[in-house]
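Now for my pick.
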Amino acid sequence: MSADPMHALATNARAWPFEEARKLVERYKDAPPKKGYVLLETGYGPSGLPHIGTFGEVARTTMVRRAFEMMSDIPTKLVAFSDDMDGLRKVPTNIPNQEAMVPYLNKPLTRVPDPFGTHESFGHHNNARLRGFLDSFGFEYEFYSATECYTSGRFDAALLQVLRNYDAVTNVVLPTLGPDRRATYSPFLPVCPRTGNVLQVPITGRDVEAGTVSYDDPETGEAMTVPVTGGNCKLQWKCDWAMRWYALGVDYEMAGKDLIDSVKLSSQITRILGAPAPEGFNYELFLDADGQKISKSKGNGLSVEEWLTYGPPESLSLFMYQQPRRAKRLYFDVIPKTVDDYLTFLAKFPDEDTEKRIENPVWHIHRGQPPAPESSGLSFSLLLNLASVCHAEEKSVVWGYVSRYAPEASPQANPLLDTLVGFAVRYYQDFVRPEKQYRAPTEIERAALVELKGVLEGLAPSTSAEDIQTQVYEVGKAHPFENLRDWFKALYEILLGQSQGPRFGSFIALYGVEETVALMDKALNGEDMAA
């Protein structure tokens, strides 16, 4: 147990990474693990290109790891495990040279040629992609390849243990299968010496002493006997998962909600083999814009690269941190709100006491040491609306307004703000500009706009954003809107071409009073607002 004074705070912290870490503390409350460290694992099936859900699993597991390290002196290790010895079951739809992949169906992914032509196999290519984006985020992990673990002998003892417990393991799985599959099921999948294919064939015999299984070649009918060790067989995936937990001594692994039954089954098998099942929890799945489950083979979700085109990496980490047990849509429109949420949490952190800090998401995102917030006070949504109204094609246009609003700010002194300005310009160009729809004001709205224009023209140059906001409120209350929300919605639709936006007083202060008056004149005169 850690003697760190932060331990007591972590013990009572409500943030979900601490809740998860307490499971590991309880697991080793009497003695540390014999292997000398706590092992957390994330698994990756490299049959398709890496997708954002994989990043999410590593990010969340890392958060649990850091929370545990705050509560315990036991060393930790995080393993990113690739199931790259799986047979290629279908050709992914989002890769080049798809027809050339068809002859390699059922071969281990590390024996399938790389359709991109950059690595020795499709498995190696996707492993490199996985490691590349994990490395870019600075994750601390060890990469394990199933092919290497099977062929090097690392899994040999565990495979022989499965063979010794063949009947007990099989009996756990059989009730979950249909009648046809049940008749031919075996935990072991021989790798055909003739074709190199991973075979799903009935096992006709097994020899525990020799460490072998026998089967009939499905094409030639020849009786074959192969060792279960040395990469000559792999396991069906649920047994494979359990064997891996047993062989490596995995203490923690989270999984998607769709794998709840598989986790239970694999946990049973792990206990049959003679080890406790890992701790963990089942997170909800990400959905695309249409509410469909994200699939790495379909490529229907945001990629890490796509998110990072429009938002900083910290915002992606925040999206992964927030409400992991709730299904969330993962598409472009969530990026601006998530960026602003991150800025809000970061701004709060310095003024919070220690107890509050470890509940703040930025503590978990930055491993306890978030950077100091920048003092400009400008939100991403405000920058986005500024880029929109001035039709920004480059950062310098936006910075012209920002520098006037906050003279002390500059790209050099405010690197995060400068980055956000760049994101705002790209997001405006790709998503806002194509969807902008201005409309003419109604008679009620026109009268309110004329009054607000007159109020703005009478303001002193030094009027604060808060005072401007108050004036906008007062004008809205003086006109027969059903509620003030309709007044602000009208301002956004008439002047910005969208149905929602930032605090309007803040927008006016940033864009400029004179410029806002000119914008109103344009709208009142019926001119083309998109020009």
About this structure: The mean pLDDT is 92.
